[in-house]
């Protein structure tokens, strides 16, 4: 009996296919989710790879089975590892300011860029004419006055503030240069959900009266070689809540308070955006001893 000649060709992950008689060559495309069948004749300028001989019907059936198995694995991988952005729930944020609100602006701009998956639902301020409040109004963000002031009939009490934030469906509260002590009613209503940023490396140079330029003047006068912003969860006292994140800024030999403040503020903007993104992505976890940590977005086994 005449011996049969089998030619075998292996390309990438395609199966090994027995071929009997050489015939006129043609092109086939790679297997892909967009292809209607396992083999498809295409124009040469669109070819993904080339075979010299046609494949048998038996081989085509094998390829179809292989393709189905691969597609099944791909679907499982995608559904398990990549979240459809259309199904994610955006977090609602309330931001508290008393001044220009530069951190508030940096977070809002990050939201507009898409790097923070949240919405600023409302701004709270004790100074309705401050720069932060004006920026909020210019961007159609509601403004609430707090605390209660006799000359401002539309200002709210602590309990009314909690009710208002619930009405706006606020998930997290970010203090960004807010100079009033947050009432205990709010702390109890939003446990582990209120963050503050302070312009020194807490627990140093913090507490009642330590805000603004006084912090930087005191840092320089102390001889400290390093400063920088701290983001911490708040409690019922000034600057004593659990520390979440810090950035280090060197204190130079001839620094003025203004120069140091400018460098610290630059780090504040970067750090608060990073923390706001982690907050909205639910990447903040609590260690057993009560220390909050931020899970790394690229490597969930790393924390900072």
UniProtKB/TrEMBL annotation:
Its EC number is 2.1.2.2. It catalyses: N(1)-(5-phospho-beta-D-ribosyl)glycinamide + (6R)-10-formyltetrahydrofolate = N(2)-formyl-N(1)-(5-phospho-beta-D-ribosyl)glycinamide + (6S)-5,6,7,8-tetrahydrofolate + H(+). GO terms for molecular function: phosphoribosylglycinamide formyltransferase activity. GO terms for biological process: 'de novo' IMP biosynthetic process. Pathway: Purine metabolism; IMP biosynthesis via de novo pathway; N(2)-formyl-N(1)-(5-phospho-D-ribosyl)glycinamide from N(1)-(5-phospho-D-ribosyl)glycinamide (10-formyl THF route): step 1/1. Keywords: Chloroplast, Plastid, Purine biosynthesis, Transferase, Transit peptide. One of its GO terms (cellular component) is chloroplast. It is found in: Plastid, Chloroplast. The keyword Plastid applies. Residues 91-275 form the Formyl transferase N-terminal domain. The keyword Nuclease does not apply. Its main location: plastid. It is an enzyme of class 2 (transferase). Belongs to the GART family. This is Phosphoribosylglycinamide formyltransferase, chloroplastic. It comes from Actinidia chinensis var. chinensis (Chinese soft-hair kiwi). The lineage of its organism: Eukaryota, Viridiplantae, Streptophyta, Embryophyta, Tracheophyta.
